[in-house]
Design brief:
- With 244 residues, the protein is an alpha/beta fold.
- It is 36% helix and 13% strand.
- It has one domain: LmbE-like (Rossmann fold, 3-Layer(aba) Sandwich), CATH 3.40.50.
- Bound molecules: zinc ion.
């Protein structure tokens, strides 16, 4: 099945945490959204690859994603060679997205920066008729979402209307992420505590969305970065709604 938008993350739960709201909004606007996890998350401290696959399927369903692809490119060992490029090109040519969401060029987890390079390169190469099998297809844009490291956003997406959907998608990752509304001792029985399983991370996700929302004059927003300037037909569309 073809999609309009493909959100690509290094690990299961990356795209839900970082751009789950934007995905839910795109779905609400009638866009067909797909999710691609580049690895199975097998190197995570908690949960197994199998359990994380089930959680990824539930999260994709909650966000309204039409497709979910999970590659096995090596959690904690992601590389960016020709074989990995071929694997991503195959998904791009099969799903044919116009818009791709990806990690930033550098981030705390080395897999994230490598995933950025891999996705950007694969998006270009997928458009070359003489590169590999399948009908060529090059997405029109790759926008990066914010993970650990900060950047000055090129734009933010108002996700206030779909915030509860994003929270439910995060709850699907019960082996990884602290449950919404759970107390400090509401640890799921999935293994030792980790940075992402702490209540602080859950609060950070909300705090960051409130921070960028506040700057843009809405309640919750997700920040994105574009390597190139963004052209608009109608600057009026860019007027902030809640700021004067
Ligand atoms: Zn990750």
């Amino acid at each position: 099945m073809n999609v309009d938008v493909l959100a690509i993350g290094a690990h299961p739960d990356d795209v839900e945490i970082c751009c789950g709201g934007a995905l839910a909004r795109l779905v609400a606007a009638g866009r067909r959204v797909g999710i691609l996890h580049l690895t199975c998350g097998e190197a995570g401290t908690r949960g197994t690859a199998e359990r994380r696959r089930g959680e990824a399927e539930r999260a994709a369903q909650i966000l309204g994603a039409a497709t979910l692809d999970i590659l096995d490119l090596g959690d904690g060992a992601l590389r960016t060679g020709p074989a990995e490029e071929e694997a991503v090109i195959e998904v791009l040519r099969r799903r044919r997205p116009e818009l791709v969401f990806a990690p930033t060029p550098t981030d705390r987890h080395p897999d994230h920066g490598r995933a950025h390079r891999l996705v950007v390169d694969a998006c270009f190469y997928a458009g070359l008729a003489r590169r590999g099998a399948g009908a060529p297809h090059r997405p029109a844009a790759v926008f990066a979402y914010m993970q650990h490291d900060l950047f000055e956003p090129s734009f933010v997406v108002d996700v206030t209307a779909v915030w509860e959907i994003k929270m439910r998608a995060l709850d699907a990752y019960e082996s990884q992420i602290h449950p919404a509304g759970g107390g400090a001792d509401a640890e799921p029985a999935a293994g030792p505590p980790t940075k992402i399983s702490s209540p602080q991370t859950r609060r950070m996700i909300e705090g960051r969305a409130r921070h960028y929302g506040n700057i843009a004059g809405v309640e919750f927003a997700e920040p994105f970065w574009s390597r190139t300037p963004l052209a608009v037909d109608d600057p009026w569309e860019l007027l902030p709604r809640g700021l004067r």
